[in-house]
Amino acid sequence: MKVQSVLEFAEQARAGNIGIEENTHKILDKVFAANGMNFFNVISKDLALQQAKELDSRVKQGKASGKLFGLPVSVKDCICVKGIESRAGSRILDGYLPVFDATVVSKAKAEGAIIIGKTSQDEFGFGTFSTNTGIGFNAPKNPFDSERSCGGSSGGSAGLTAFADFAHVSISESTGGSIACPAGFCGVAGFTPTYGLVSRYGLIDYANSLDKIGSMGKTVADSALLLESIAGHDEKDSTSLNEKPSFADEKNFSTKGLKIGIIKDFFGEGINPDVSKIAWNSIKKLEKAGAKIKEISLSLNAKFSVPAYYLIAMAESSTNLAKFCGMRYGAQESLSGSFNEYFSKVRSNNFGEEAKRRILLGTFARMSGFRDAYYLKAMKARTRLINEFRLAFKEFDVLANPTMPVIAPKFSEIEKLSPIEQYAMDLCTVPSNLAGLPHISINSGFSQKMPVGIMLVADYLQEKKLFRAASALEELQ
Ligand code: GLN
């Protein structure tokens, strides 16, 4: 079934052709009925209906405006929404009600978005399958096959976006691939911007030098519209850039002569042959449409980006998690013993297994005596890996690879994977994330009736090139 585009929906809603409260009611009924799919950690029914009423009255007053006017928007749990429990999928944040909106949420609201809830994820983003959920949370199920994962860590966002038979977009987040991976596994468009293009203010951090808030939608155009609504400079985030993308004029572009580099390291060993073939077919379509195709090797990234990423990400996350000690936010335990005993009790009882693993490994990598060998070495490697991309972008407009090496695995298969085997699955998504480069994943086809994603990467702030290439490909599919 063809779902109305966000552009069309907002236009109709502004014109008063859609009863916003009525539509919001309908959608809330649908998401409540799909509760067993675990897309949400919280459905914010009261807030959504209150916003819908206000928007209906704005239409009546002739004051309807905004790119996302009346549109149901879901928000990954790690992004703060005022008055709505925001836990980043962790029991340690039980009961935490932010007293402010993240900048992206206030920007989306200013464009008329209706926040329908917080989507499920791996605890603090620590995972690739949304199965590393915090204690008491459930993994979202893939709408194409409920025995399979939605991917992670923005699994709820992607699952819901694929499931929705109504206009909807999701604000999600990526540290090492958490937008592209689930978008790929669920067959939707996931747009991860250049690091710094979208404010991180109000994000419950995973790893500050890597975190990027981005967008998911059914189509490239939907995800791009959300991205331009939430991007832009924010003085509350010291890494925020003074840039704002606009895709509105990108209508009659051509992909003729667009230079696409095929990252050959991500088409061979370690990649399922069917997945590789499906991604190749998409590239051939672009070639037929006039793009110039050539293979390129990113051998340093293929070898070292996963270990460098996990060292840096864990080192940063272990410091970020230090603030969760039961004194300021979220879960508490009965007060007894010394501060250290209390602190340990809160953290032992409320962090999940993967969070504990990352605190231990990350702290170890930063300890004096080991810092040079691990954390600082990984930082040096990061510079080399970024340089490899820099050279590639002297020759190419965009680079392409399959988003994930496999189709969405079954939960029973994931259980059998060791943590290292799970980390290795991020092979294709980690490089561009480590470098802070913009990328988009869109559907490339199907294998065993499951979506296969293709990922396009561009140079810093070249989101428009991604938009063009991905829109063209979407049309050719
Ligand atoms: N799978 C990666 C990790 O576990 C990336 C997750 C993310 O981007 N939040 O770190």
Question: Can you describe what's shown?
Answer:
The chain is α/β, with parallel strands linked by helices and 477 residues long. It has a single domain (1-477), classed as Amidase signature (AS) domain (Amidase signature (AS) enzymes, Alpha-Beta Complex). Helices cover 40% and strands 15% of the residues. The chain has helices at 6-14, 20-33, 45-60, 103-110, 155-163, 180-186, 220-230, 273-288, 299-320, 339-350, 353-366, 375-395, 411-415, 419-424, 430-435, 463-476; strands at 40-43, 72-76, 114-119, 141-142, 145-149, 169-174, 189-192, 212-217, 259-263, 292-296, 398-402, 439-447, 450-458. The protein has an 11-stranded mixed sheet, with helices on both faces. It is globular and about 65 Å long.
How many distinct helices? 16
**H/E topology pattern:** HHEHEHEEEHEHEEHEHEHHHHEHHHEEH
The CATH H-level superfamily is Amidase signature (AS) domain
| Counted beta strands | 13
How far the N terminus sits from the C terminus, by CA atoms, comes to: 16 Å
* Morphology call: globular
Largest sheet: 11 strands, mixed
**CATH fold category name:** Amidase signature (AS) enzymes
Short description:
Helices cover 40% and strands 15% of the residues. The protein is an alpha/beta fold and 477 residues long. It has a single domain (1-477), classed as Amidase signature (AS) domain (Amidase signature (AS) enzymes), CATH 3.90.1300.10.
Secondary structure elements and pairings:
Layout: H1 6-14, H2 20-33, E1 40-43, H3 45-60, E2 72-76, H4 103-110, E3 114-119, E4 141-142, E5 145-149, H5 155-163, E6 169-174, H6 180-186, E7 189-192, E8 212-217, H7 220-230, E9 259-263, H8 273-288, E10 292-296, H9 299-320, H10 339-350, H11 353-366, H12 375-395, E11 398-402, H13 411-415, H14 419-424, H15 430-435, E12 439-447, E13 450-458, H16 463-476
Parallel strand pairs: 2-3, 2-6, 9-10, 9-11
Antiparallel strand pairs: 1-3, 4-5, 6-8, 7-8, 7-12, 11-13, 12-13
Helix pairs in contact: 2-3, 5-6, 8-16, 9-11, 9-12
This protein binds glutamine.
